Every structure is written in structure tokens, then in C-alpha cells.
């Protein structure tokens, strides 16, 4: 069956000429964006209940833009002035670049990984004597605590924000040819919003092994998968599939 409509379970990219824009132009398909999950901040009193005192830390591990936003939000709510001596360990260049929203980059000690948390570990290892705070959501990839514990550093996890399932009731009678998912939480949101969901001719596109596992466990048929050596991005996987079925 030909593809005319796609729903991506994420916010619309803010950049001009995104890969989705090129996909729309080339394949003449309609692409809508709708976050299936969203992030809500945890109140400062809940952070205090976790026995977290920001004065006790000399370094912050930042794995995402959300962790940056919510660390500084909590610091502000707790009236904690982040010292200039604070060290920041950012999982990727994108996170480090985003950090500039809150700190003067050249005046701070910022250490940047390549992309994955695994690649950040050698940098953390060089500063094993620091007291690390990891601001995170209520869901954390198991690899993160495993690697930090293995390293034997003094670290504390603080749940500063949580992932919440969005209300999608307005989509109940809306049909799309392809639904695109990037996380197990997105699959969970689909099944909780529509417990009677029947896939039928709807194609499911998933990104990442954990999303594949969640979709399979939910009884969904996976039609499009990324990343693969041939299609490292979701838009490339969609392009390849659409080209083959829209002949």
C-alpha cells in the first residue's frame, strides 16, 4: 500500500530544511509531528526528599538538554548559586552547546564526550576524586549507573524530571499510513492511549533496539527499522521504504 501520511511521535524539528522537510518535498507525503510523551519537572521539595544537597557536589554529569534545564531550574528554586568552580561533564557536543544557555562557556570547566555515555566515561575517570551529581529523569538507561559504579566514582543520582504520557485522545479517529517511534515510552503511550489499537494496514517504524523490543512485546508488526548500516537515520529508512511502495 502506498504511503501518503506519516505521524512522528516527537516534536517538530525547529531547524529549517530538516531531513523531514526534504522527505516531504521529494516523496510528496504529509508528515505530522506529535509528542507521545513529555517531560515534567520534579519540585524542589521532592529533590530535597531524595536527600540531595547541591552544596555537596563538585561536578555535574549532563546527558541531555532536559538534564541541563532541570538542573538549573532546581538550583534556582533552591536558591543555590552554582559556583564557577563547578565541573560539567556533557555526554555530547549538543548538550555542551546547550549549556551555554546558562553559563559563560569560556569561564567554566566543561568536558565533552563524543555521543554515547560510554564515550564520556574516560573523561570522568580522569577526575575520579570529584563528587558527581547526575540529574536525570525517572527512567534511566541501565548502562549509566552500571558504568559509573564500575568506575568506582562518588556519584549520586537525582530525579529532577519525569517522563509523562501525553493525552492523545484527539487522535482516536485519525488514521496514518506510518507511525514513527523513537523510544519504548512512545510505544507505551500508544498502548495506554489506545488499548484497543489494531495495527491492520498501519506501518510501524521504530528507531533503536529498545524501541524494537517494546514494539514487539506490545504485539506490533515492525515494518521499518533504523538504524541499520544502509539506513543510519530514521528519515533514510522512511525514504527507502516509501520509494519502494510508492512506485
From TrEMBL:
Domain Tetrapyrrole biosynthesis uroporphyrinogen III synthase: 19-235
Official protein name in the record: Uroporphyrinogen-III synthase
Signal peptide start and end residues: none
Gene3D superfamilies: 3.40.50.10090
UniProt xrefs under InterPro entries: 4pyrrol_syn_uPrphyn_synt_sf (IPR036108), 4pyrrol_synth_uPrphyn_synth (IPR003754), UROS/Hem4 (IPR039793)
SUPFAM superfamilies: HemD-like
Coiled coil feature spans: none
Organism: Flagellimonas abyssi
Any matching Pfam family: HEM4
Amino acid at each position: 500500500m502506498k504511503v501518503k501520511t506519516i505521524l512522528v511521535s516527537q516534536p517538530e524539528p525547529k531547524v529549517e530544511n530538516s531531513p523531514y522537510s526534504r522527505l516531504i518535498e521529494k516523496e510528496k507525503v504529509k508528515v505530522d509531528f506529535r509528542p507521545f510523551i513529555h517531560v515534567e519537572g520534579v519540585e524542589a521539595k521532592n529533590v530535597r526528599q531524595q536527600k540531595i544537597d547541591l552544596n555537596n557536589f563538585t561536578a555535574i554529569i549532563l546527558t541531555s538538554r532536559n538534564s541541563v534545564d532541570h538542573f538549573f531550574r532546581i538550583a534556582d528554586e533552591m536558591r543555590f548559586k552554582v559556583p564557577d568552580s563547578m565541573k560539567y561533564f556533557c555526554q555530547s557536543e549538543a548538550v555542551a552547546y546547550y549549556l551555554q544557555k546558562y553559563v559563560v562557556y569560556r569561564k567554566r570547566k566543561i568536558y565533552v564526550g563524543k555521543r554515547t555515555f560510554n564515550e564520556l566515561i574516560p573523561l570522568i575517570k580522569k577526575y575520579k576524586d570529584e563528587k558527581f551529581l547526575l540529574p536525570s529523569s525517572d527512567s534511566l538507561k541501565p548502562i549509566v549507573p552500571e558504568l559509573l559504579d564500575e568506575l568506582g566514582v562518588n556519584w549520586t543520582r537525582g530525579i529532577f524530571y519525569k517522563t509523562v504520557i501525553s493525552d492523545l485522545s484527539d487522535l482516536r479517529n485519525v488514521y496514518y499510513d506510518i507511525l514513527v517511534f523513537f523510544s519504548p515510552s512512545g510505544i507505551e503511550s500508544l498502548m495506554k492511549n489506545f488499548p484497543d489499537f489494531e495495527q491492520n494496514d498501519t506501518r510501524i517504524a521504530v528507531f533503536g533496539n529498545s524501541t524494537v523490543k517494546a514494539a514487539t512485546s506490545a504485539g506490533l508488526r515492525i515494518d521499518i527499522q533504523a538504524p541499520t548500516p544502509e539506513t543510519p537515520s530514521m528519515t533514510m529508512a522512511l525514504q527507502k521504504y516509501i520509494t519502494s511502495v510508492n512506485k
